[in-house]
Design a protein that fits this description.
With 99 residues, the chain is mainly α. It has 4 helices and 2 strands. The model has no long low-confidence stretch (mean pLDDT 84).
Length: 99
Amino acid sequence: MAIDQDIVYQVNNFPSFSIFNREKIKRFKQDNAIRLRILADTINELMESHVNKDDNKAFKQIVSPQGMPNRWDFKSPEDGDVFKKEIDSFLAKEIQIDI
């Protein structure tokens, strides 16, 4: 999940983040496990429906001239529009997260 990747990034780049927030992170993940799973599953379903995959079955990204991935490789321009609308619609819903 993206939140796990973000936590790993924060811990690796800011060691004090882990020291001061370890219990909060643990409690956050426990208290919100179902909500976070729904979020991850919904985003994954949208990705499966609208984004191409590479030979390794990973979601494909278009790489910028500077060598940085900068957007998903959608199956068609229409898929890109539908994906963006569905993500916006999903994220616009109010979800209560317990901190």
